[in-house]
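Quick one: structure for this chain?
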Amino acid sequence: MKELIGSIDRITEQTAYIILNDDEHELQFPLELLPDGAEEGMAFTITIRRNKEEEERLRQEIAALRRDLGQA
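Got it. Here's what it folds into:
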């Protein structure tokens, strides 16, 4: 699991732009994913972890699509 720390640089109608503490990377997040009341200048910790269950679901979905295309 990795953690990133960044702060909101600016907010548009539907997007928050978060500058990571390395000052080299910017993430764009839908505003609806941030806590209510999020404002420019606020700092957040973003956790990244692998989701093996979602990987398996996507594998199965892709396999089904490939089967369907092979039968078309």
